[in-house]
Amino acid sequence: MAKTIAIMLRKGGSGKTTTAVNLAAALRQMGKRVLLVDLDPQANATIAVGIDPTQLEKNISSLLTDINTTNRDVIVTTDFALDVLPAHPDLALAEAGMNATQVGTVKQLLQDLQSHYDYIIIDTPPSEGYLTINSLVAADEVIIPLQAHFLAMQGLQQALNTVAKVQRGLNPNLKIVGILPTMVNPRTNIARIVLKEVGERYSDLLLPYSIDYSIRHAEASLAGLPIVLYDPEHNGSKNYKKLARKVL
C-alpha cells in the first residue's frame, strides 16, 4: 500500500509546489514507485515536470466529473519516469461544484492506485477549499512548507489549525512529517527571525534543513525538471534528498 503525503499551506508562493515536485522526483530517484497528484487548479506541478496541461485530452478534473474516466486514462509518465495525475485550470470549476459530502472523493479516486505505488505525493491548492480538505482526508502524512517571510507565521498557524480540524474528525490518523523552511535568504534578518520563532514555538516539528531562495529553482521549473534532476549538486537538491530520506 502506498503512503500518501500532502504538501499543504494556505499561502501561495511558499515553495509548496517545488517541494511536492522535488520530493516526488527524489523518491523516484531512490527507486520507489511514485505518483505525483496535482490538485492545484494553477497546474504548476504539472507544468514544473514538463507537461503542458492544455495539450492533454484528460486531466484530474475528468476523474472528478466523468464517471467513464479511469485513473489510467489520466496518468502521464514524464521523461524521468515519474507518474503524474495532471491538473488543468478547469479544476477550479470542478471544485466549485463540490459540497461537504464529497470530502472523501480524492481518497476514493486514489484507492485503486494504492497497490501500484510506494508513495503518492499530493500538491494542494493555496486555500482551505474542498480540494485541500480532500487531500488531507486522503493523506497519511502532511508536510508544511514555510516561506521565511514576515507573513509566514500566520499562514503556518492556519495550516496547523486546518490539520488539527481534520485530525479531530475526518482523518484522525493524519500525521505531520514536519515544517520545511523554504525560500530562505540566510542573509536577511527577517529569515533569521522567522526561523528562530518557529524553532521556539514548534521545535518538535521544524525540520533540521531548509531550502534557500535561489533562481535555480525557477530555471528548473522553466526547463520542466525538478531541481534534483536539473542541478543535482545544488544545495536545494541535497536538502530535498534529505527530506526524501526522512520520508523513507
Give an overview in words:
The protein starts with a strand and ends with a helix. The protein is globular and about 55 Å long. By secondary structure, it is α/β, with parallel strands linked by helices. Helix 1 crosses helix 12 (235-247) and helix 6 packs across helix 7 (130-138). The model has no long low-confidence stretch (mean pLDDT 92). Helices cover 43% and strands 14% of the residues. The chain has a single domain (3-247), classed as Rossmann fold.
Short recap of the structure:
It is built from twelve helices and seven strands.
For the structure shown, list the relevant keywords.
alpha/beta; 43% helix; 248 residues; 14% strand; 7 strands; seven-stranded mixed beta sheet; Rossmann fold; 12 helices
End-to-end Cα distance: 14 Å
In the CATH hierarchy, the architecture is 3-Layer(aba) Sandwich
* CATH structural fold name: Rossmann fold
Strand content: 5-15%
The H/E string reads EHEHHHEEHHEHEHEHHHH
Major beta sheet summary = 7 strands, mixed
Apparent shape: globular
The CATH C-level name is Alpha Beta
Q: Roughly how much helix do the residues carry, as a percent range?
A: 40-55%
Radius of gyration: 17 Å
**Whole-number tally of structural domains:** 1
Looking at this structure, what is the CATH superfamily? P-loop containing nucleotide triphosphate hydrolases
Strand order of the largest sheet: 3-4-2-5-1-6-7
Mean pLDDT across all amino acids:
92
